[in-house]
Amino acid sequence: MGLLGALLVAPVAAASTRGGNYPVLVVGAGTRSDYVLVAEGCASLRCLVLDRLDPVTGRITRVTRPPLSPVRDSPSGDLGRLAFASARLGVALVGQNGTTQKVYATSDGARSWQRVAFGPGESVLDVTAGGGAVYVVLAHCRTTRGFERCRDFVLAHASAARAWTSERVPAAVTAGPPAALSGPQLGSVAAYGSRVVVVQTSQGSVTLVRTSPDAGRTWTTRSVAWPTLANIAGCSLSPEGPLVLWASCPTGMQVSFYRSADGGRTWSAVHQGQFSGTGGGFFAAASSSTAYLDYGYPRHVLYVVRAPGLRPVRVGPLPCADFTSETFSDSRHGAITCTGSTSPVAAPRLMVSSDQGHNWRAVSIR
């Protein structure tokens, strides 16, 4: 799966300039199931559809997209995030800011979506999914002197679209350094089933790792010494099982990657070169032992990272100039959306691989 499992949706400009069908993004949903947003023939929201893709066979099945509202120059409308805990269970964050964002969930493989309502005054900060459970981060937020300050954090979770449980997050977990007051102090939440992990913004030479084994009812805090997990905005996590975590940690212009095999107690660094956060590359977890790395500019070349050595090994060039999204359902199968050139009118393509990224073929979206 991708590093977050929940992908931020970005507009695809090419879809508005050419006819035909264009993939907007691909989202992983576990083994043998990805979901692809497709703009059919135009950049209008009325042309946006959702398909389920079998990354092994390339078979596409039309399903139902979440309810969306139009946004200028965005084929995906006001869809903020889309995440799947399994092929059947998913969650969508819809809207353009926390006070008006809505949450929709599906438990029938995106055949239908149900609105999930929470308490009055709750701002929706994030959604995530993994291991058969979906999570929503809520808080009471207000803007003061241009900064958004949030309090009373709540972690809502479900293993079915209509069966939600909420847990109030203790203040010791949500309290962050002063720089974190401009956004959610809780940090980016990652989950696998009932296990929840947060890596917060580094404070001096220490990074705090918060873990909960019971969906947010109780928490344990561990300190990790610099330079491991050093970051300026919290680390993004991808759980690949109850104990294995892959981490992406921004340290300014550069990004560092790590793996934990014991639920976040200890971490090992990926032996990487310099990875620029603005270079157009990606780091994507594929399994508990495998991840894929593309450094981006000036050429897209795929590397595989395997535990326990964690040394990138060159796979080969990627048939892309610009990426919009990527996901790996396991160590062999991947799906990407990208353009073949940097031209502003280049058509995005859906590409799949079933041999660890050595060869890629385009999937026709009819």
Notable features of this structure?
disordered N terminus, 5-stranded antiparallel sheet, 366 residues, mainly beta
Structure notes:
This protein has one helix at 171-174; strands at 6-8, 21-28, 34-40, 48-53, 60-62, 79-84, 90-94, 102-106, 114-116, 123-130, 133-144, 147-158, 164-168, 189-192, 195-199, 206-212, 220-225, 236-239, 245-250, 255-260, 268-269, 282-285, 290-294, 301-306, 313-317, 322-328, 334-339, 348-353, 361-362. Helix content is 1%, strand content 45%. The strands form 7 sheets. It has a 5-stranded antiparallel beta sheet, with no helix packed on it. It has a 4-stranded antiparallel beta sheet with strand order 2-3-4-5, with no helix packed on it. It is mainly beta.
Low-confidence stretches: 2-6, 10-18
Helix count from the secondary structure assignment? 1
Give the strand tally: 29
How far apart, in Å, are the first and last alpha carbons? 25 Å
Q: What percentage of amino acids are in beta strands?
A: 35-45%
Give the class from helix and strand content and strand pairing.
mainly beta
Return Rg in Å: 19 Å
| Mean of pLDDT | 87
Cα shape: globular
Strand order of the largest sheet: 1-6-7-8-9
Helix content: under 10%
Q: What composes the largest sheet?
A: 5 strands, antiparallel
> What's the SSE pattern?
EEEEEEEEEEEEEHEEEEEEEEEEEEEEEE
